[in-house]
Amino acid sequence: ELKAVIFDLDGVITDTAEYHFIAWKQLAEELGITFDRAFNEQLKGVSRMESLERILALGGQADRYTMAEKEALADKKNEHYKQLIARMTPDDLLPGILDLLRELKRENVKIGLASASKNAFTVIERLQIGEYFDTIVDAAKVKNSKPHPEIFLTAAKQLQVDPSACVGVEDAQAGVAAIQAANMFAIGVGDEEALKEADYIVQTTAELTYDVIVRAFHRE
Ligand code: BG6
Ligand code: MG
Coil, strand, or helix at residue 68? Predict the structure, then answer.
């Protein structure tokens, strides 16, 4: 029986995945590195520092900067990102998400958030949806990044629900892998090719209703 749904934030609840992309792309261009959306799929769900490392490696610049310089680069990206999220409002919730949160509450399904972002609380506040979450696990609370299952397992533990009764919702390859490593049912939102490992895929959040999730979970 479905007892909890644990959501990723960026790219699932709201389109901040696009803001991360814009901010990284600008920094990369300043460093003379170009990357496309296909490469960006590999950055989704990945921590800030690891994302920078992957971009530098792509540009053949893995060994060019000291740790302090890398931190300055990551800070620069984050300042740009913070400017982009400062303008967010509840209108920036992705289609169907608010209805889904309300439906899950009505059905007594617990709701968790598992976000790799250190900006997760700010984004949730801007969207004014904090009241819906029974637990919020962000980057500050876990040691291992996705695809490690720790963040999803921590959320399930705090919700006091067995992982086998949880559904995880993700837009990232690393996130889908983390859900499956946690022994949960993985729903992917977005590109079918990028998310082919997921147990169930929807193209957009508009398709995500309680019924759809329950049916997928029971493999009907
Ligand atoms: C994840 C995003 O949710 O958070 C990644 O998918 C991002 O793109 C990561 O790099 C870390 O976010 P932040 O806000 O801590 O830099
Ligand atoms: Mg995401």
Answer: helix
What residues pair up with 200 in beta bridges, in sequence order?
187
Helices (H), the chain: 16-30, 37-41, 48-58, 67-86, 97-106, 120-127, 150-159, 173-181, 210-217
- ipTM of this complex prediction, to 2 decimal places: 0.99
Strand, coil or helix: 61? coil
Amino acid, res. 214: V
The answer, yes or no, to whether any atom of ligand 1 lies below 6 A from the CB of 77, is no
Among candidate residues 8, 134, 138, 171, the one labeled active-site is 8
| 46 Cα to the center of ligand 2, angstroms | 9
Both tokens of residue 100? 């889904």
pLDDT digits (tens, 9 = 90+) for 117-156: 999 999 999 999 999 999 999 999 999 999 999 999 999 9
| 8 carries an active-site annotation | yes
Pick from 22, 24, 47 the residue to mutate for probing ligand 1's pocket: most ligand atoms within 8 Å of its CB.
47
Pairing of strands 4-7, 166-170: parallel
CB distance 20 to ligand 1 below 6 Å: yes
Helix (H) or strand (E) holding 169: strand 166-170
Distance CA 21, CA 44 (A): 9
Query: Which residue carries 């984050």 as its tokens?
Result: 78
